[in-house]
Each structure stands twice: as structure tokens, then as C-alpha cells.
Design goal:
Elements lengths: L1 H5 L10 H12 L13 H14 L9 H7 L2
């Protein structure tokens, strides 16, 4: 729960190492067409939406606590 509470919200335009971790998690969850570059651009938005739809999350392209938790299951 402490880890989940510490998760940052990521969205289009974010650029940092946490975005790179997100992108790596998407790759590990078999989401195609995403690059691990630390830049939350249109490809990452699309990949996040695909993952959210696939896993029954709200499809908004924004990665918050619930999306991070699901990615790490």
C-alpha cells in the first residue's frame, strides 16, 4: 500500500526515469509499439490505453495508482 500511495501520475508530456519504468512494464506485459525512452508521447499514450482496455481499467491514457498496481501484478 505504501508503494501504491507513492506512485506518481504520468501523462502525455511527462519525461523522466519513471516513464521509462512504465514503458518497460508495458513491454513486459506484451504491449507492442512502445519504446523505452523516458518520453511519454503519443506511442506511450496509445500503449497505455491498449493496456487499460485489455485489463478493464478506465481508458484515459493516464497512468496513476490503479494502472501502476495492475502493471505490477
Amino acid at each position: 500500500e505504501k508503494t501504491k500511495a507513492a506512485c506518481k501520475t504520468l501523462r502525455n508530456g511527462s519525461k523522466n526515469d519513471v516513464v521509462a519504468v512504465l514503458q518497460a512494464l508495458l513491454v513486459c506485459n506484451k504491449i507492442d509499439k512502445v519504446y523505452v525512452d523516458g518520453d511519454y508521447g503519443s506511442l506511450t499514450v496509445s500503449a497505455v490505453k491498449t493496456y487499460q482496455k485489455r485489463t478493464g481499467l478506465i481508458v484515459d491514457g493516464i497512468v496513476g495508482k490503479n494502472t501502476f498496481a495492475k502493471l505490477c501484478d
